[in-house]
Amino acid sequence: xxxxxxxxxxxxxxxxxxxxxxxxxxxxxxxxxxxxxxxxxxxxxxxxxxxxxxxxxxxxxxxxxxxxxxxxxxxxxxxxxxxxxxxxxxxxxxxxxxxxxxxxxxxxxxxxxxxxxxxxxxxxxxxxxxxxxxxxxxxxxxxxxxxxxxxxxxxxxxxxxxxxxxxxxxxxxxxxxxxxxxxxxxxxxxxxxxxxxxxxxxxxxxxxxxxxxxxxxxxxxxxxxxxxxxxxxxxxxxxxxxxxxxxxxxxxxxxxxxxxxxxxxxxxxxxxxxxxxxxxxxxxxxxxxxxxxxxxxxxxxxxxxxxxxxxxxxxxxxxxxxxxxxxxxxxxxxxxxxxxxxxxxxxxxxxxxxxxxxxxxxxxxxxxxxxxxxxxxxxxxxxxxxxxxxxxxxxxxxxxxxxxxxxxxxxxxxxxxxxxxxxxxxxxxxxxxxxxxxxxxxxxxxxxxxxxxxxxxxxxxxxxxxxxxxx
Length: 471
Known about the structure:
Number of strands: 18
Helix content: 25-40%
Shape: rod-shaped
Largest sheet: 4 strands, mixed
Number of helices: 14
Distance between the termini: 147 Å
């Protein structure tokens, strides 16, 4: 709304601007005094009155005419109680306080109103109006205000200060013409570094500045990935910033050779996605899909595959054995070679990391039957060629009372009491598994081999000594 003198209602609204808290040195006199006028006009009072062409006394008269009815002066309850008794000093102090409070609230506004009326809103009003630079997050604007403090200037400019904002100077600090007020807005930053979330408040307009304020400059070097550019703006309403540091990990993928990979992935499954490596139904990451990656970590992927495989295999011919007592024992004669058959076998094969861990036969198709192989096996026992047996019969008589088939269970067998180890070592198994199962002649044949190898009958120490045989 515009008044008759051409000034807006906003100018008039500034007339009651002085706050109660302002320390203006008004007089305790209930009347308006020259001192009060000079205090209300401030240090430029003389200049202002000269420009308006008015003296102190005339200005007081105009002020009294402007305030035809003074606001009531309220005395403290304590003062009233004292006045009823003996008009003590407490009552006087209460009156002084009430007068000064009234003048702070009403007098200065009245003085300014009269001066603006006299000058038509000219030099006198402008002299009370300060030009202040307000810097909000680097954006500067010039504010004209009658305010004496930082808080009052910001209020005139319609600028509020939040709990996380930084203001310099403080709201209570005085500000003069040409003063500078700096306001840095607080912004909430939700920072997620390699999956770890932290909430912070910063007074930064770019991502890089925010990291600096949080002491995280090291993240902006190397191959770190950011969800927003470092030069990007941090909005006033805040933002969520994801950061993924660069790591070198070793990947063991199935049966392939291990390889080193440089990545910004946070988890093992994210690494596989980044590399375009999918997981089959039976594939598995040993450490778990959500395994958190750090520099130097190892990721093991077990690849398990199931396939159906057909194989052509030979069918070995059956062997028919015909015993032949005309052939010496141990000899064989192939009468019919036989012929291998052929079959196609279908398998379900399971592989893990390239190695078969299971194979199940599902189906067999006979392509060609096998032809039987026929072999004649000799069963004829060879009769050893031995000389004079009288010494051996004497030894057998001493060792086993001449019983060539004796087996007492003491680990010695036959007429000459061989143990199994000696019998096998000197070829006895060509005749029988155990000495007592062989003939007298066969036992004597093995005994002669043992005697000849030892150069005497020392293998039978007791009986050879008894019989006087060379040892």
